[in-house]
Amino acid sequence: MLSAKNLGKRLGPRWLFRNLEFELGVGDALLITGPNGSGKSTLLRCLCGLEPVSEGSVTAGPIGIAAIDQAVYPDLTCQEHIDLMVDLRGTGDRKALELVNLSYAANLPAQKLSSGMRARLKLAMAVLHAPTVLLLDEPSATLDAPGIELVENLIADQLKRGCLVIATNDPNERRLANQEISLEV
Amino acid sequence: MTPTALFAILRKEFRVEFRSRSGFFAASLFAVMAVFAISAASFNSKLPGNLASGLVWVSLLFGSVIAVPRRFIQEEELRTADLLRLAAHPNAVYWGKTLFAIVETVAYGTVVSVLFFLLTSAKLVDPGLYCLGVLGTSICMGSVISLCGAIASQSANRTALASAISLPLIVPIVFMGIACLRVSMGEGLIPGGWRSGYGLVGYGIASLAIGPYLFAAVWKR
Which residues pair with A2 in a beta bridge? Predict the structure, then answer.
């Protein structure tokens, strides 16, 4: 489902990470930890192809990603974001806002959402096409208690159909993973 | 690429444009100001066709330069381009955004033309040729500037680079566009004007045909 071979990423003269190898199947969850600037988010971007790798290769099935620094269109409503993603992917659940308890804000433009609501919208966009690989970057950073519970439910569903990679330093999220990579500065 | 994906991008562009009122409305404001300035400068005097065609064309050029490259540059600045990279085929992004740019430049060309002939003393001799000139110019400008915006959007100094790489591609459009509009306003020979008009359409089609290949190369990282 997701395999990385000899993965490395260099920024100028410095290697953010190098010689990373892992293979994830159904039910596997990989935790990526490390201090700020160690390359956790960059690794996720490399895994989904948004960032080129300096060496090595990644093989993956359909991917969904929800990242804390991911942007949304300020002028589009939540439902328009979902419809856009479904139309672009050619598949997906147009009622994905229900999965993240955001149906009540379906007609609100993204610029009027709180940071927690925006995080839920990104989650809905990441899972609407039932990806086999789900990448989450600091998934509970801006969420309240019900939001965190919701993420845990989504993760449980994800692990039934595929695998998961979480970049976080939150100790509560460590228990979700069965593999771990620790990056260093 | 599916038609659904293409129209999803096109629909998104219309929604973002009409809600943010950034590109077309800023360009239209420029059109109104430019035509008012020309009208005031030529008040009580006849505006010759060769000069009028140049003024219309300059208004079209600057309006397009204000509105069109923003489509791609704004996506990178807002960091929403990643959403499209993750979910969309590059051809859907290219065609959706380029079609929107062409619609935008045609609409802008119509606004400029209507205002120009209402507010100045310029005479139109061949309306069909004039329409071909504005349409051809709009297609060329929409596709060329849109593509330059896409290429430049990956760089740090986006706006300056978009202008710089647009320049050599716009020069042929300048010559053909002005020749076409000049004849439509009564200066020069009609067959030559139509040849320039067809040349514009051909240039537009050629740039649209090459565009997806160049775009695919710069879009995916």
Answer: A24, A60
Contact B145, B96 (CB under 8 A): no
For chain A, give the mean pLDDT.
Answer: 90
| Residues 202-221 (B) with a CB less than 8 A from some CB of A | 220-221
Cβ atoms < 10 Å from Cβ of B43: 10
User: What percent of chain B has a predicted confidence (pLDDT) above 90?
Assistant: 18
Structural tokens at position A35: 């201090």
Q: Is B7 on the interface with A (CB under 8 A)?
A: yes
Rounded to 5°, angle at Cα A61 from A122 and A99: 30
Judged by average pLDDT, the poorest of A12-21, A62-71, B138-147 is: B138-147
Residue A71, classified by CB atoms within 10 Å of its CB into exposed (0-12), middle (13-18) or buried (19+), is middle
A183 close to A40: Cβ distance less than 8 angstroms: yes
Query: CA of B129: how far to CAs of A86, B126, B164, B182, in Å?
Result: 43, 5, 30, 10
pLDDT (average), residues B108-122: 87
- How far is Cα A152 from Cα B217, in angstroms, rounded to an integer? 39
Model confidence over A103-143: pLDDT tens digits? Answer: 999 999 999 999 999 999 999 999 999 999 999 998 888 88
User: What one-character-per-residue DSSP string does A26-91 give?
Assistant: TT-EEEEE-STTSSHHHHHHHHTTSS--SEEEEEESSEEEE-TT----TTSBHHHHHHHHHHHHT-
Note whether B1 contacts A: Cβ–Cβ < 8 A.
Answer: no
> Closest chain A residue to B75 measured between Cα atoms?
A73
CB pairs under 8 A, 24+ apart, for B196-203?
B196/B133, B197/B129, B197/B132, B197/B133, B197/B136, B198/B132, B199/B136, B200/B132, B200/B133, B200/B136, B200/B137, B200/B139, B200/B140, B200/B173, B200/B176, B201/B132, B201/B135, B201/B136, B201/B139, B203/B136, B203/B140, B203/B172, B203/B173, B203/B176
Sign of the CA dihedral with A24 first, then A29, A34, and A40 last: positive
Whether A71 sits inside 8 A of B80 (CB atoms) is yes
For A135, left (φ over 0), alpha (ψ -120 to 50), or beta?
beta
